[in-house]
Amino acid sequence: MFLAILASNVRLISHWSESRGVYDDICYLRQAHLFQRFGWQGLDTSLARETDGYLAGKLRSIDFPNWRDPTRAPCHTQTADGSKWVMTPPPGTGFALALFPEGFQVIPLYALANMIIAGFALYGLWRAREPVSLTAAAMLGVLSIYFMINPAKASYSIAPTMVVCVLAGLFTARLFVDDGRRRLLAVAAVGLLLGLSASFRIANVVLSAGYFLFFALSFLIWRSREAFVSGLTLGVAFLVGLLPVFAANLVNSGNPLVSAYGGQDTAPRSLDPAVLRAYLGDTQFPLIVIACVWTALLWRFPGHTGVRKLVLLVAGNLVLNLGFFATHPVFTPYYITPILMLTLWTLLFTVVFTRGTSQGSIAQEPGGPRPAEMLSRRST
């Protein structure tokens, strides 16, 4: 099933056009063009560099009104000092597109992302050892590969985001089944991935909210050296992952902490009934229910000493992200997809790593019983 859906996805993707009329597409492709033309200096998205007519040509190809006036181009804004016009999206998606030849960028990006997701789905299936975990791996694998077309096709930024989510889910699960140095490496990997995710979509920075809340509360409650080092490692790795965003901000707005995206979303936060109804009628709502029910079941039947800690992290992150987008003034079919996929992949890898230990013993959770002791208890 995995391979059949993957083959179907690749066949559909191979017929996609890069001029489908979506305004954001033009900006991601222009960023890729700048990277291919200027190298790392492509971080500078000023319209003053638009000397080859690339942007105008792209806008004309989708019949954009006023395509001759670059200042009317979508997702471009004037800097606070009025010195230049720059793009608002972060540079990550454009960089990913720039890895492929101009004119043939979207198809290979999506095809590669689909193959990576299918690979992790197969890995989860291979690691599953019990009927329950095997079923969960099969269902999530099918859904995740399908989602690489719908809703991932809605925005070029979602394809690389989905890859980051599965990687972050894998390392998050390892946080609570590894110990010592391996656990610290998993913390660093999670922080780095979450920071890098913001390079694809600025809103992805919210994916880290639950992690920082969990590690902050862990230190405040336990006051241990391990909790402090883990939180510090997460924070430093997260900042390292944010370096591309900081660099782009510095080049375009003159301040690494001021995004060109700032000011684009100034509507006050509130619970809009129209937005809530849109989510209730969308594919994202059943996924929310599945994520919440699975989280609750894992709390009730943890199967490993560290799982309930992971459930607290996952639940807190899910609540914070759902609250953020529920009060967002705009609805789209993919806004909540990243947090849902991060949550579901984390839960799946947690289940397959901690249940059915015939392939090997589970690493000791710091402060918990040793693997041999756990297996002895189960035998008794």
UniProtKB/TrEMBL annotation:
<feature type="transmembrane region" description="Helical">
    <location>
        <begin position="107"/>
        <end position="125"/>
    </location>
</feature>
<keyword id="KW-0472">Membrane</keyword>
<protein>
    <submittedName>
        <fullName>Uncharacterized protein</fullName>
    </submittedName>
</protein>
<feature type="transmembrane region" description="Helical">
    <location>
        <begin position="184"/>
        <end position="200"/>
    </location>
</feature>
<feature type="region of interest" description="Disordered">
    <location>
        <begin position="361"/>
        <end position="380"/>
    </location>
</feature>
<feature type="transmembrane region" description="Helical">
    <location>
        <begin position="278"/>
        <end position="298"/>
    </location>
</feature>
<feature type="transmembrane region" description="Helical">
    <location>
        <begin position="229"/>
        <end position="251"/>
    </location>
</feature>
<feature type="transmembrane region" description="Helical">
    <location>
        <begin position="155"/>
        <end position="177"/>
    </location>
</feature>
<keyword id="KW-0812">Transmembrane</keyword>
<keyword id="KW-1133">Transmembrane helix</keyword>
<feature type="transmembrane region" description="Helical">
    <location>
        <begin position="334"/>
        <end position="354"/>
    </location>
</feature>
<feature type="transmembrane region" description="Helical">
    <location>
        <begin position="132"/>
        <end position="149"/>
    </location>
</feature>
<feature type="transmembrane region" description="Helical">
    <location>
        <begin position="206"/>
        <end position="222"/>
    </location>
</feature>
<feature type="transmembrane region" description="Helical">
    <location>
        <begin position="310"/>
        <end position="328"/>
    </location>
</feature>
